Amino acid sequence: MSLEWDTDEEREEWLSQALLTLRAAEEMLLGDLAGDCIANSFLAMIYAARAVLVGREGEVTTWEEVIRRFREAAVDSGMSPENRRALPVVAELYRRVFVAGDMEADPVTASACLDDARSFLEEVAERMGLSITREDDEDGDRYL
């Protein structure tokens, strides 16, 4: 299974939700809410990964399935190695903070998660012929 980067309404909706969640993560970091920033960064990445999995075989019902299926499909996708690795890394941080509870959220880690999420969304959007930043809109990309 490989990723297709075309756009359609459902993909754009998932990516739009990812962008809204990314913006919430930025606000959480500014509000000194590191844990919420990590959670929203992770969720934004899940939504973006979900956007590129639209139309694939089978129902995707858990974030673990989204990550697994995205990783399988991303191998031959042309997506940068950094962004292919970012989703599992941020997922592990999310798991450690919120599921296992063996790690405290801190602003440095939250900022790194936010940077990873931003880069991930930018690349997914770019490959779909969209933009998540207004500045890119001037280059002829469609802005979400």
Number of helices: 6
Main sheet: strands, sense, barrel: 2 strands, parallel
Beta-strand share of residues: under 5%
Low-confidence stretches: 139-144
Query: Any idea what the shape is?
Result: globular
DSSP E strands, number: 2
Distance between the termini: 27 Å
Task: Provide a descriptive summary of the structure in words.
The chain is built from six helices and two strands; from the N terminus they run αααααβαβ. Strands 1-2 form a two-stranded parallel sheet. 69% of the residues lie in helices and 3% in strands. It is mainly alpha-helical and 144 residues long. The model is unreliable at 139-144 (pLDDT under 50). It is globular, with a radius of gyration of 15 Å.
Salient structural properties:
mainly alpha; two-stranded parallel sheet; 6 helices; disordered C terminus
Short description:
The chain is mainly α and 144 residues long.
SSE topology sketch:
Blueprint: H1 9-30, H2 34-53, H3 63-74, H4 81-100, H5 107-127, E1 130-131, H6 134-137, E2 142-143
Parallel strand pairs: 1-2
Helix pairs in contact: 1-2, 1-5, 2-3, 2-4, 2-5, 4-5
